[in-house]
Amino acid sequence: MPDLENRLLELHSPDGQHTVVLRCKDGPSASSWFTAVHTNIAALLPHTLAHINAYLGATSAASTHPHLKHIGWLAEQVQLEGGRQQYKPVVMALTEKDILLFQAVPWSRESWSTPLLTHPLLATRLVHSGSARGSPAQGSDLVFATRTGTGRGIESHMFRVETHWDLSSWMRALVQGAHAAAELIKEVSIGCTLSRQDVRLTLHYEKGFTVTKEQVDPVGGAVLFRYPYEKLRMSADDGIRNLYLDFGGPEGEMVFDLHSGPKPVVFVLHSFLSAKLTRMGLLT
Question: Which residue range or ranges hold the PH domain (predicted)?
């Protein structure tokens, strides 16, 4: 609905089925009411998270539902025919390991288990936050963008928020969530080919890179190479299936054929490095 005088407030039900439009007497009144409602919603967020986690049984050690760390309504940018763009409301929830997107707030345990989209925090990066126009301007949208490494390449999303507080809250939740996921998951490994030999490349949050012979025996194969992160001189990928790593060793540049898109491994590597640098106080 057009709002040329900035007098309207829209209130949406949690299930996304109902909308109420309120018209205030003038712009300042609308702004005052928006601030009051938004402030109370923000204040209720910790109670909401506690209620949802209790309902899902996420606080129980035997629960199969992940523990929610952050949740809220956002507007996601979608592409329309003819190159046009618009924003649609979505609910984003962050768990200890994943980003979940829903059309509306789920009302059952089954609904919580079937999000529209799931992205691992470890393979996701926050790449932009601030004004949609690139520089602050009155009335400009506040947005943040994410990029996730998938087997099909990089998947990008743009989300709009209502206030600077929302923007900083989501930025902090995403960055700290990715770092916490790195410390929680600790290790990611993938079977691949190196110099026509089947190997397993393992990235460990603390220990760095390990390349072992691929074995059927679950105990694992012999270690071929082991390097800490600080030995890494160069990393790159071809965007298709190859990952290139150079540690300055006598073997030179190593080319790993991952048999699938390399972006998930690349993004996990970046998350591990970012988490380690932040822990060391070299990133803030």
Answer: 1-42, 67-179
